[in-house]
Amino acid sequence: MKKIFLLFTILIVSVMTTACINNLAVQELNSKAVKYMDNGDSETAICRLKSSLDLDNEIYQTHYNLAVAYNNVGQYEEAIVELNKVLELKPDFYDAIYTLAVAKEAIAFKIIENDNEDEDTVKKYTKDEITEFNNKASEVIELYNQYLSKKVNAKESDVINARISDINSKIKQFSEEYATLEEESQKNNESGEVNE
After folding, report:
1. Residues 193 and 96 occupy one common structural domain
2. C-alpha–C-alpha distance, residues 121 and 114, integer Å
3. What is the pLDDT of residues 62-82, one digit of tens each?
4. 83 and 137 both lie in a single domain
5. Which of 105, 151, 156, 183 has the most CB atoms in a 10 Å sphere around its CB?
6. Could you read off the pLDDT of 80-136 as tens digits, one per residue?
7. From CA 59, how far away is CA 53, in angstroms rounded?
8. In this structure, what are the phi and psi dihedrals at residue 6, rounded to the nearest 5 degrees?
9. What pLDDT shows up at residue 117?
10. Do 105 and 191 lie in a common domain?
C-alpha cells in the first residue's frame, strides 16, 4: 500500500512539475513574442507564439497575441480563427471582440479597395461586391457596438464611434450605388439588352 501511495505521489508531483515547466515556457515564449511585436517583428512573434501553442493550446492569451500578430502582418483570416478560439476559451475577454472587429473591417474594406493604377479612375463595383461589403461592414458595426456595450467607458470609444460612422457612410454610399445598378439592370432588361 505504501508503494502504491509513493508511486501515486511521484506521478502527481511529476505531472505538476511538467505542467509548471510548460506554463513557464509558454509565458516566456509569449513575453518574447510581445517584445518582437513591440519592435515591429510580427513574423518572428508568430513563430514564437505557434511554438507556445504547441506546448499548450488552451491559453487564451497566446491565441490573442497570435491574432494581434496576424493582424499586424495583414493575415486577417488567420487572426479571425485565433480570435474565435480566444472567445471560445474566454468569452468575457472583450479585447478579442474589438480585435475581431478590426480584422473583419480590414477584410470588408479590401473588397472595395481601389486597385486601379490610374487614381483618377473610379472603380465600378459589381452588385455582389457591394452586397458582400455591406454585409461584412454591418457585422463589423455589430462587433464594435458589442465591444462598447461590454467595455463601458472604453478609452477608445470616440475612435470606435468615428469608425462606426465612417462604415455607415460607406454602407449608405454603396447601397445607393447598388440601387443605381439595379435600376440600370431593369432598364436594360426592359429594353431587351443583355446585362453582364
Report:
1. yes
2. 9
3. 999 999 999 999 999 999 999
4. no
5. 105
6. 999 999 999 999 999 999 999 999 999 999 988 865 555 555 567 888 988 999 999
7. 8
8. -65, -45
9. 52
10. yes
Question: What does DSSP assign to residue 120?
Answer: T
Helices (H), 56-156: 60-72, 76-89, 94-111, 127-150
Task: Tell me how far apart the alpha carbons of residues 62 and 56 are, in angstroms, rounded to a whole number.
Answer: 9
Q: Which of 55, 90, 125 is the endpoint of a domain? A: 90
What is the helix (H) or strand (E) element at residue 32, kind and residue range?
A: helix 2-38
Q: Do 121 and 162 sit in the same domain of this protein?
A: yes
Task: Please state the domain count of the chain.
Answer: 2
Longest CA pairwise span in the chain (Å): 95
φ/ψ of 47, rounded to 5, equals -60, -45
Residue 71 shares a structural domain with residue 109: no
C-alpha to C-alpha distance for 150 and 90, rounded to whole angstroms: 14
The predicted pLDDT at position 6 comes to: 47
Question: Model-level pTM?
Answer: 0.78
Do both 169 and 180 map to the same domain? yes
Residue 88 and residue 67 in contact, taking contact as beta carbons nearer than 8 Å: no
Q: Each residue of 138-193: pLDDT tens digit? A: 999 999 999 999 988 888 899 999 999 999 999 998 888 888 878 887 887 777 65
113 and 85 assigned to the same domain = no
Assigned C-alpha cell, 124: 465600378
Q: Which residue has the cell 447598388?
A: 178
Range of 140's domain?
92-196
